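Appendix B: complex inputs.
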Amino acid sequence: MTNHPDDGRLQTYLDGELSFDGAEAVERHLLGCKPCQERVEVLRGREARVQAALSRLDQEVDPQAALWRVRQARARRRSASRRQRLAAAAVVVLLLGAGAAVAMPGSPIRGWIAGDDEPVQVETTAVDAEGAALSFQLRNGEGRVEAVGLGDEVELRVRLTDRTEVYVGAPAGASFETGAGWARVTGGTRGALQVELPADARSVRLVVDDQLRVHLQERLLEVDGQAVDPGLRADEDGWIHLPRTPEGESGGISGSGAGHQQDAEDP
Amino acid sequence: MSFEQLFDDVYPRLHRYCTRMTSDSDVAEDAAQEAFVRLLDRNVSGDPSGLKSWLFKVATHLIRDRVRVEENRARLLEENPVRPPPVDTPAEELERSEDVARVREALDSLAERDRTLLLLREEGFSYRELAQAVDVKASSVGTLLARARERLVRALDDEDES
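Resulting structure:
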């Protein structure tokens, strides 16, 4: 190398970004060139000075707390998005069914509107690829979701929300019954039974095949009789995954495992 | 690589980058977290290196947008100032905050491209990735980095003198 390498080339050399031949040429030059050796020291000194200065701006970070906030933010966003879709679907159903409700006194829609304590059959209305959904208000701060006859492949999951109603997403092929403060899901062959529980509810229960699987009471969440910290057990969407049979009968709560699996494939 | 592994690997660096990029720690934290929320929302896929670049790019844009909003707000405040009452600050804390302010002033005096290059390089991005991030040729990155460091050191000296 007859010419002196400029600062840009020396910087590229220092950063290890030159090709093998390029780096070798710079090194050969440096061996016999005192001014360039001094330039390299100046560049190194600046780098050290810059790193020391920038480090003064750094703050402590808690990745676990941050991960939890990311999951919560995403759960809230998806929940809001789903509510919008559900509301849109409900408008369509009501518009289409309004005439039938008037014309047919025994129709489900009329009963749903009129009924309070009286059980009402609700037709399954697909709102997304996973199946059907409805939401209902608590009664005196309490609610109950029952599921019977779910297929073996159906997943179970719950999560807490800051809303006041219970949201029930049922697997494909399921049918609903609902009344004041309760809903019953029957059947369903694929997808998931997903229940969103108002965190501030006095008491909400999820009963599957006559077994109490989830009980939220005064902000204490129990899954299969065990207290659960949602912050530790939920996946990135805030869901807590339940085994199909209660813990103790065939294994524990899958926790964020399903979420991990999905994420390992997703991004 | 699972989402959690990616988060563990990238979040601390992304948070540090954002904190250095803006003086508003809330904006920095929001940007770092929002980038990951968007990664999940949009189901962005790719190799870990590509995802890391994507996250830093999103966070950079988020900060830039927020900084513009904050600048507008600051202009409004300048026209209608609301001055908080003076508070007693321990000497050590005062010294540290002055120290931080000097570095911040020096960093803010750089052109946005220089600042982005420097900070991304500190987080381990290659010249090729830096070139893509600020839209220059990879062969120019060494020169730009050397000049950016020189400018920052000079600005730090100026701040120390003043």
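Chain B touches chain A through 53 residues (CB under 8 Å).
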